[in-house]
Amino acid sequence: MEIAKYSFYPQNNIEENDWEHILYSFFAALYKNGQILNKYLDVGCSEGAYTLYCRIAEPESLDGAFYKDACWEAYNALLEKSRAKPQFEIVAPIFDASTCNCGTPEFYVLHHPILYESAPVFCGKCEAMVPLYRLPLLKNAENYEPLLDWAREYLSYYAIYLNSYSMGKKADRMLYSVSSSLTKMGLRLCHEMALNTGKEFLYYLGDSESAIGIHKHKKVGLKEAGVFRYKYLQEMVLS
Ligand SMILES: [Zn+2]
Q1: Ligand 1 geometric centre to CA of 76 (Å)
Q2: pTM for the complete prediction?
Q3: What does the DSSP 8-state code read for residue 38?
Q4: How far is the CA of 111 from the centre of ligand 1 (A)?
């Protein structure tokens, strides 16, 4: 993972509100396409230029080669109101946060991105994050929002689990029970993604003792069309 600096140059005569709407629409399109990893963004403005500092999966993450239609649409709208082409550069790699380089992973794991605000899909072989834009889209989806929604919901329950005495038990059940609505939502995604990728797509269930992926946890996998098949494994695949 890398920290990138992305600079934008609005035309001099554009209303600030209009410009910010166009700019943030572009950021949203990149985020939903997995090209920017953090939802909450730091944007600076100085001397007529806007600068975004963001986290990305790999040095080429921001390339137009990964754009979907919505990204091009937002980019073209931005370009139309810019006095110069946007520019990006890599500032630094993020310490101890890797991205999968396996090409096509043997299998995938839907896994909570607790340690870093990152994509929720991991390579089953090297255990590193897989950038979402490398994956096929879910049926009828224009972007990767369904996967990102699951991850955000997971993180919301995790925050409650850690911080709330009164709601902690409910959150614990949501996170670690096979039959919770959150788990079912994740399993449905795994099921669809297994069909889409043609690879096994496991669901990381974990338990309250191994929330950050420490030892001995359970994974739940499902494969065949229409059948929820749970597979419990004790060995550590992700850590
Ligand atoms: Zn890998």
Answers
A1: 33
A2: 0.84
A3: -
A4: 14
